[in-house]
Design goal:
Blueprint lengths: L8 H10 L6 H12 L6 H4 L17 H13 L8 H20 L31 H4 L2 H34 L11
Helix pairs in contact: 1-2, 1-7, 2-5, 4-5
Length: about 190
């Protein structure tokens, strides 16, 4: 798995790149939380549910169905996030699904049950550059540092580039004659 430090970063970066006019702050925060939500499945270990079980780690909570259901729940409270129910649903669904995508880019574990309940198969991406994170008991070790360095290279740096590039484009557009900063997404 990728660490909980890294899971909300792609959502944050995209939200910052798009600007608060497109992604209101409450929706951005909800998306960052939704990006961490699938890892609540680690509580299954406390209930005696095995890692490879459908309700184990990277099982149903990492599926596209779960991401879609998260979006539907967000749509029900869409105006709480300061936008339409459709925008809430799409943003939260994508934010939740981003978690599984990062996990599928790791070099360990059993893969991600994207197609649950239609298929129990677990998937990885063909390219898996991110070091898989140890669980809590092994995180504060040399291995944990190695994982954080891997995430810095493959997650944090690209997210920083995305956020800064999006912000820069919005600033450039705001400077065009006849454009106000509000029209550029600030």
């Amino acid at each position: 798995m990728t660490t909980l430090i890294s899971h909300p970063l792609p959502v944050l970066a995209l939200g910052l790149a798009l600007g608060s006019r497109l992604i209101p702050p409450r929706l951005l925060l909800a998306g960052m939380l939704a990006a961490c939500l699938p890892d609540l499945d680690v509580l299954a270990f406390k209930c005696g549910i095995a890692y490879g079980d459908a309700f184990g780690h990277r099982g149903f909570s990492h599926s596209l169905l779960f991401a879609g259901m998260s979006g539907v729940l967000a749509a029900l409270g869409g105006y709480v996030f300061g936008c339409s129910p459709l925008k809430s649903a799409l943003w939260i669904s994508l934010a939740t699904a981003s978690h599984s995508l990062l996990d599928a880019l790791t070099n360990g574990g059993l893969g991600v049950a994207w197609l649950w309940p239609w298929s129990p198969q677990r998937f990885f991406m063909p390219w898996r550059p991110i070091e898989v994170s140890p669980f809590i008991d092994g995180f504060f070790s040399a291995r944990g540092v190695q994982v954080l360095l891997s995430e810095a290279r493959w997650v944090w740096l690209p997210c920083l580039i995305l956020a800064v590039t999006g912000w820069g484009l919005r600033c450039t557009l705001a400077r065009r004659p006849g454009k106000s900063p509000r029209q550029a997404g600030f």
